[in-house]
From TrEMBL:
GO terms for molecular function: carbohydrate binding. PANTHER family: D-ALLOSE-BINDING PERIPLASMIC PROTEIN-RELATED (PTHR46847), GALACTOFURANOSE-BINDING PROTEIN YTFQ (PTHR46847:SF3). Belongs to the bacterial solute-binding protein 2 family. It is found in: Cell envelope. InterPro entries: Peripla_BP_I (IPR028082), SBP_2_dom (IPR025997). Residues 1-23 form the signal peptide. CDD domains: PBP1_galactofuranose_YtfQ-like (cd06309). This is ABC transporter substrate-binding protein. The keyword Coiled coil does not apply. It comes from Amycolatopsis rhizosphaerae. PROSITE patterns: PROKAR_LIPOPROTEIN (PS51257). Residues 83-336 form the Periplasmic binding protein domain.
Length: 362
C-alpha cells in the first residue's frame, strides 16, 4: 500500500502538534501516574519551541523501520555510568517505573550499565540487540564514540532514543531523537543565580564536569556567557571534578590552598558541589556564607543543604526521562513525526523554596 507523504507545511504543523502533545501529556501538574525516581515530577517537554524544523522530523515512513509497539516490544536500556550518582539512580528507576506502568513484562525490559566505559557501552548495546531488543533507549557516556553501536542498531532497523547527553551523530539517520535539557541555558541560569547570591562581586572557581560530552561543554559556555554580564565576578580557577563527589572534594581542597580568597563556586553537578561543601568545612570555612555555591542537578542532598543554609542555589536537570522516552517511542510507532531534539523543562531551587520543594528532588 502506498503512503501519501505530507507536504512541508503539513509536516511542520504535525511536528509542532506532536511536541505540544508530549508537553501536555507530561505536564508537571499531571499526577495520574506516580512520579518516578525519588518522588518528583517526570521530565516534560518545554514547549513547541523545542521542536526541530519540520525537515528534521523523523517518521516511520522516512526511516523505513517496522512499526513496533513499545507496550509489547522487547526494549533495551543502556545506562552509561555506575549508579552511585543520584542522577543515574533516578534515571534508571524512571525507565523501570514507566515500563511497569505500561504493563511491559519485566523480562521485556533489558537493562545494562557501562560503568563509565565507552567500549563497554558499545558492547552493551550490541549485546542488547543480540538478545532481541526491538527498541533502544540509550544514555550515552560521551557525545562521540558510540557510532559502531548506532550502526549496529541501524542495520537491524531498531530505533534509538538518546537521553541526557547528545551524540554528534545524525538524528533520524543514526538515532531517532535526543531528549534532554538545554545545557547552555542551565549554565546561564546558574551564573545568574551566582550573581544574585554573591551581590555581583567575588572570585569564582568552576568545578568542571567530565570531558568528552556536550553537558560539560555547554554548561561551561552558558555560565561564562552569562557571568560576563557581571564584571564584578571573575573566574580565577577551573578544574575538572568529573561529576564525582570525592573528586570534586579533592579539587576543592587544592583550590582552597591555591586561592584562599575564593568567594564562590560553580559546580557543574550537585555531587561536586556537595564535595566542595565537605572541603570547605574541613578548611574551617562556612559554605553558603564565606563561599557561595551554585550547582546543577537537583539532588536531595544539595537541596537539603540549601534549606539548611549551607548552599545557595541549584538549577534542576531532571533525570526522570522514562515517561517521555516511552511516549516518544509510541509516537514514532504511531507514524507521527518526532523532532530531532526534545528539550525538557527544568526547575530551580533556592533559599525561598528549597524546604517546600525538597520532595521533588532525587
Amino acid at each position: 500500500m502506498s503512503v501519501r507523504r505530507p507536504g512541508p507545511r503539513a509536516a511542520l504543523i504535525a511536528a509542532a502538534s506532536s511536541v505540544l502533545l508530549l508537553a501536555a501529556c507530561t505536564s508537571r501538574e499531571q499526577s495520574a501516574t506516580p512520579s518516578t525516581g525519588g518522588g518528583g515530577p517526570a521530565a516534560s517537554a518545554a514547549s513547541v519551541a523545542s521542536a526541530a524544523p519540520a525537515g528534521d522530523a523523523c517518521t516511520l515512513s522516512r526511516t523505513g523501520y517496522p512499526k513496533i509497539d513499545p507496550k509489547t516490544a522487547i526494549i533495551g536500556f543502556s545506562q552509561s555510568e555506575k549508579e552511585a550518582n543520584p542522577f543515574r539512580i533516578a534515571e534508571t528507576q524512571s525507565i523501570r517505573d514507566e515500563a511497569a506502568a505500561l504493563g511491559i513484562p519485566a523480562d521485556h525490559l533489558l537493562v545494562t550499565n557501562a560503568q563509565s566505559d565507552l567500549n563497554k557501552q558499545i558492547g552493551d548495546i550490541k549485546s542488547l540487540l543480540d538478545r532481541g531488543a526491538q527498541l533502544l533507549i540509550v544514555a550515552p557516556l560521551n557525545s562521540d564514540g558510540l557510532q559502531p553501536a548506532l550502526d549496529a542498531a541501524k542495520a537491524k532497523k531498531v530505533p534509538v532514543v538518546t537521553i541526557d547527553r547528545k551524540v554528534t551523530s545524525q538524528p533520524c539517520t543514526d538515532y531517532l531523537t535526543f531528549i534532554g535539557s538545554d545545557f547552555v541555558q542551565q549554565g546561564r541560569r546558574a551564573a545568574a543565580e551566582l550573581a544574585r547570591v554573591s551581590g555581583g562581586t567575588g572570585k569564582v572557581a568552576i568545578l568542571l564536569g567530565s570531558s568528552g560530552n556536550n553537558v560539560t561543554t555547554d554548561r561551561t559556555q552558558g555560565f561564562k556567557e552569562e557571568l560576563a554580564k557581571t564584571p564584578g565576578l571573575s573566574v580565577v580557577a577551573e578544574q575538572t571534578g568529573e561529576f564525582d563527589r570525592s573528586k570534586g572534594q579533592a579539587v576543592m581542597e587544592q583550590l582552597i590552598q591555591s586561592h584562599p580568597d575564593l568567594t564562590a563556586v560553580y559546580a557543574e553537578n550537585d555531587e561536586m558541589g556537595v564535595g566542595a561543601v565537605n572541603a570547605l568545612r574541613t578548611a574551617g570555612k562556612t559554605p553558603g556564607k564565606d563561599v557561595k555555591i551554585v550547582s546543577i542537578d537537583g539532588t536531595r542532598n544539595a537541596v537539603q543543604l540549601i534549606a539548611d543554609g549551607s548552599y545557595n542555589a541549584v538549577i534542576e536537570s531532571n533525570p526522570r526521562f522514562g515517561r517521555l522516552a516511552f511516549q516518544t517511542l509510541q509516537q514514532f510507532a504511531d507514524g507521527r513525526p518526532v523532532p530531532a531534539s526534545i528539550v525538557i523543562s527544568d526547575d530551580s531551587y533556592d533559599e525561598t523554596n528549597a524546604a517546600q520543594k525538597a520532595g521533588n528532588a532525587y
